[in-house]
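Recap quiz, item 2
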Amino acid sequence: MRTEIEPLLDIKDLKIAFDSTEGMLYAVKGISLEVLEKEIIGIVGESGCGKTVTALSIMRLLPGNSHVTGSLFFSGTDLLSLNEEKIRRIRGKDISMIFQETLSSLNPLLKVGWQIEENLKMHTSLDKEERFSRVLEIIKGVGLPDPERTYGKYPHELSGGMRQRIAIAIAIVCNPKLIIADEPTTSLDVTIQAQILELLREINRERNSSMIFISHNLGVVREICSMVYVMYAGHIVEKAPVDKLFTDPAHPYTMGLIKAMPKRDSKGKELFDIRGRVPSIADMIYGCPFEPRCDYAVEKCKKEFPGFKKMDNDHEARCFLAGEI
Amino acid sequence: MYVYLKKLFAMILTVLLVSLIAFVAFEVIPGNPALSRLGVDAEESQFEALSAELGLNDPLGERLSRWFKGLLTGDLGTSMRYSVPVSDLILDRIPVTLSLALMAMMFITLVGIPLGIVSAKYGHRLPDILISMISQIGMAIPSFWSGIILMYIFGIVLRWVSPGGYVPWSEDAVGAFKSLLLPAIAIALPSIASIIRYTRNSVMDQMKSDYVQLALSKGLNINSVLYKHVLKNSLIPIVTVLGMIAANILGGSIVIEQVFTLPGLGRLLINAISTRDLPLVQGMVLYIAFIIVIINFLIDIVYTVIDPRIRLGA
Amino acid sequence: MDKRSINLRIGIVLISLLFSMMIVSLFYTPFSVTEINREERFSPPSVRHLLGTDNFGRDVLSRIMKASQTAFFVGLVAVSIGTLFGVTIGAVSGYFGGIVDEIIMRFIDAMMAFPSILLALMFVSVFGVGLRNTIVAIGIMSIPSFARITRSGFVQYKELDYVRSAKVRGVSNLRIMLRHILPNVLSPIVVAASMGFSNAVLAEAALSYLGLGIQPPNPSWGRMLSESQVFITVSPWYAIAPGIFITLLVLGFNFLGDGIRDMREKRK
């Protein structure tokens, strides 16, 4: 059981709110999750459920009008209690991040090699030659040919897949213990997607880096994650080991997501879509947030928000009817 | 390479077009320059003689080709008032206006851009609001008035510099600098205000970009991000506005040279207009147009240097 | 009183104050604007002469009040010229596109590359000085920015569905331009007009300072500054006052323009 092992990242009751003209709006309303060493966990949900905000909060990258409460323990240290200087030392070195859009997340005016080297400059005391060779090493390590030439390229000169490899290189060059990947394959085409996923798996295996893989694409999550957390409207509604999630989903939302996945034989057929829309951060919610869109909802669901119902080891869902559907 | 040639060609074409317009404006429209030179009471014979001398009776086509030929050889005609070639008069005055323009540009970039960055860094907080307010006022103050006030305070009351007048660089470098300092500041003020605005907006825009987030996620502190990443990206719209600022400096110098009685191109132009010395005005307008075209050309080149997407073709 | 509309308020306050002063000056000024009074030459600001007197003993405040008429008049007419022609040119250029658009915009770009004061000076040097020519010169100088803004608005809106459907229904181009597209572009045009007003005030002041704008006996803040510069050691207030008023009027319209722009942003 997972709870018996000391997690690398231990998030408890994380709440994230933003100041706005309408008062404090909660994007994340109290979530808890753990990431173990060498583990790849997935956070899935449609856009607007709070997954990206959660990821940014781990790195303390949220804007000034945000309020984060709860506890965020990383290797025994509460990240939320650290001052700016200390958190900067962790960023890029112990925890790093990969973003979705590489064309905009890489600085268009700087050579990609330099952008990788910047991490080394910040976090190591290697001299110029050592840094350069490390960068070349890492460029080769992420599967890019001709490291020396690649070093001098600008982002727009590389293809989407190559850029993502560079982004990964930036993220792993200082051997972080945790890598947060926010939709890293969403803007890539399917064949490249597979390659990047394989690269990430390799990194996880050989460098002992844990990963948080964020996506709205269940298919991709299934490929790479061992543990999955499903988020909806700022809450975690189900968490399960990956196989269990797909064979025995307990929460209606998870079931909906699985149903909506394009499968090999669904070509030409209409894709299933969960009816309704994701509530916005400003919507007031009473009871279960998924209730308006749920096909199994009963009266109770409108008034009360269910707590976690345990299905099995490491498998829980927040639904009154979990296990019965 | 090909891109540069195309730009060069466009530049030459523009200059030709402008000179054509200058020709039409100053030789065709105003009527007879001989008339204005001699006055209405002049005798018929004097009038005829002068007209012939100035070649005013020749057909339009011939006059036009003479004009273009003159351009190629650098002959912009002869000033009616000074009876000296226009190009000589211009060359004489260039050092003054050029020094003034360069000093003004220096102030603008060295003061304006950093203030704009600070303004963006503290966006919507006190430093930003303060700087924005001051620059609003700076844009509203007529430059010649600030010149007068500066001259009064520093030249007359405090006596740190001499009020007006020009000391040539060749004679006394310090004196020259001192005589150009206040005028340059007066010219620079409104442009400093507008470059602060542009820089601020540009930097604030860039700070919303994804690469800023990535840079922060690497553990960089905000100043490093600003100066190593954001600044370069912000420069592109700023360089665009530099073209406009160069035009403002040129325009400003025309008026400021009058305020401080500096013997520059601006004063020459004003005198020329006041005395209806049309050949001189025509020559000067053309010269200024030429400068503007060159400046725009240079700015285009700067773009290609800064942005590899333009240089290497995105 | 929220932060956004503060610009607008300051602008309106400043403009109203100066406008009221101008209206008052049409009927009354504390002293005669032209009467020469040798004994009171160069007197500093006092209760009697709030802004002192000039080299002829004339009350500076009264002259400033009278000159505000010129500032508003020139600003108004020049901006109207600029708006009328600029919007028309921009609309035609943006709506019809093609080679006409290319040529017009090249021209406009060339005009914008020039220092605006130079354009005005060129006009004045060919056609002469004086009130009418000053207004026309500044009007012409304002045309390019209106043309650009209008054009980009028209280019944007002409592709919209309801414009397309109007075309399909056979609505005339003129009607489409006026009824369907123009109202949407009005907002940036109004902002430009406000800024244009302040530019016009500055341009008139500069031209008059150089002696190439408003000529005597028409009063002008700019010309007052050039007259006063000679006497600055004797009566600095004479040189300071007109500049302050120019600045205030320009500030007023700048804030107004910013304020309108902010309100537009807010509505988005």
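The radius of gyration of chain C is 22 Å.
Residues 228 and 238 of chain C are 6 Å apart (CA to CA).
End of item.
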